[in-house]
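Recall the central idea of this unit: under ordinary conditions, the amino acid sequence of a chain determines the structure it adopts. In this exercise we apply that idea directly, starting from the sequence alone.
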Amino acid sequence: MKWSNKGHELDEYGKELVNNYQIRGAKIYIFGAGLIGEEIRPVFERYGCFSGYIDNDKKKQKSGINKVKVISPEEYLSDKKDGIIVIAADKKNIPSIKKQLERAGLKERKEFYICTEFMGITFPILSLYFYSQLYVELAQICLTERCSLKCKACAHGCYAVNVNCQDMSIEMAKESADFLFENIDIIKEFVLIGGEPFLYNQLEEIINYIGGKYRDKIITFSITTNGTIVPKKNVMDACRKFNVLIRISNYSSTLQYLENRYECLIEKMIDNKISYFMGTSDYQWMDYGFETVDRKWNMGELIKTFNECKTPCREIRGSKYYYCVMARSVSDNLKFGVGKEDYLDLQQQINKKIFLEFQLGYSDKGYLDMCNYCNGKDAVNHPIPVAEQLRSC
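Accordingly, the structure predicted from this sequence is:
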């Protein structure tokens, strides 16, 4: 989306949201007492607006979830409770829950919202316009482009990176964190990524730096790894100290030998009392088409591709805040040499409204240069095997 009224693009919608939120008592109920509900609950608790769970599961209604009461939809409706309902359920269950609420007379985007839309768009606007807090869903620092694998169609183009290439300096990593956290108030998940972040020699130092200065602004502090490397003891100590979650990508469907590595890594996580999340093996990658797509700089196609994509993957690199980490990394790693200005410069005095607008997809051009070489949302229609390796690997 192109900026047409920079710093005020969301004012009118923000007022509507605030008015509706105030009418409903500034309360939020989560419909779905499962993994998705548990993931977003800490956000609402941080703001003091979490009012409870709603679920159709009678067992959950009876036992509750983590000492929190779970009520039935009928109880919520019969008591005429105020609040906004956020549907936090698997995609396959959302339509039936939505119909259930609509049959009860509730209106979407008034009394209830779908989780992805609410967390990605609505709540960040509410956070700023009602609470005066700049909320970000996800942002990352890419510490190294080096990787321990050579995956075809890597979404970051890391297969083209020499193992001896220079990592981000520790000074720049710290500067990146400073620029981000000096501009935002709270982030749902902050991630250290690569390449393979466990290859980064100063990982302990940057964990301690970010944890020591900014942990109170981070709900989930995480590291994403391909699981091929067991971190050093000092790194694990830092992870435990600052409650860093290790997200392990699961490539065992393609690389069966990794199953033993995963077992070893998980054993170390358990022994060192470090939180971890193991991905499932039954999924596929998407081919973003970076080396085959060429929109020939058709402006209409570029804007359409960008507006439909809505990638959540922000990156901070020094003072440069990139909307899409893949666009930046692929352009650098595969030598496209485009998108040199496709960032928000936090070295300038950026007010919170401008930051939020950029976060939600506004920019001077209305697209990213790398959209010319990307399948965008249509990448889901181009499934490829997970972590298939180059022959030279």
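The longest helix spans residues 115-131.
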